[in-house]
Amino acid sequence: MKIISSIDELRDQLRGQLRTVFVPTMGNLHDGHLSLMRLARKHGDPVVASIFVNRLQFGPHEDFEKYPRTFAADIDKLEKEGVYVLFAPTEKDLYPEPQEFRVQPPPDLGNILEGEFRPGFFNGVTTVVLKLFSCVQPGVAVFGKKDYQQLMIIRNMARQFALPTQIIAAETYRAEDGLALSSRNSYLSETERAEAPVLFRELNTIADEIRSGNLDISLLQNKAMQCLKDRGWHPDYVAIRKRIDLQPPTAGDLAQNEPLVTLAAAKLGATRLIDNLEV
Ligand code: PAF
Description:
Strand order of the largest sheet: 1-4-3-2-5-6
Bound molecules: pantoate
Largest sheet: 6 strands, parallel
Order of helices and strands: EHEHEHEHHHHEHEHHHEHEE
């Protein structure tokens, strides 16, 4: 595997490749990331991964400094997955001057749910993803459904900017007890780790209720929020939304069996976890 940090070298290395498939990450790779690499291999060749902890998508009081960085272990894992190039720019490589041009996601998609609780997050994500796409020039890129809203925003960005990159969604990779794998799980204490699957359990309870005909959306959301609070969580939101645009379903939408997704974000101790489940 070639490890490249400069944009020019990356372009030289990938020149002439027409089916490059790209998996952007922030490192601290776990089995969820590796499942993205495996899916990538089915959709193109060569596979290019990136590791870059993107300051632009962290709020001033978020965990940019303490975000887990495990570069040596990440390299081993990517080598075993047959990744051809690892693009690992420094901040100087990717942002040699202040990144003043930014992507601004539309407010009805970028300022709701995660965007409401992490202002500027999707501006930072889409800006770095557009820049990484410009460096790698992939035909295909893979993103996990774990970050459901991120996936939708990147899809819409790729469509509206007519980017020549097909966006592929990968299913969320879960531990046996249901917890979605995430780099931030490493912040959890042993007791918190045992409690963490409750978030997914609550999403399943909502999905079961909806499937059995209970369409009282606000009651279902409130019940899940209360259950989390009662167990010591600090939920930001539990929201049942339309899959198509992440807006709340109207009575008409519900009557017409509009496909839904339940999304949640909640703090357990100092760790903020997110998850979602398509209904
Ligand atoms: O999902 C992530 O790890 C990040 O948001 C991404 C897409 C690599 C951009 O920094």
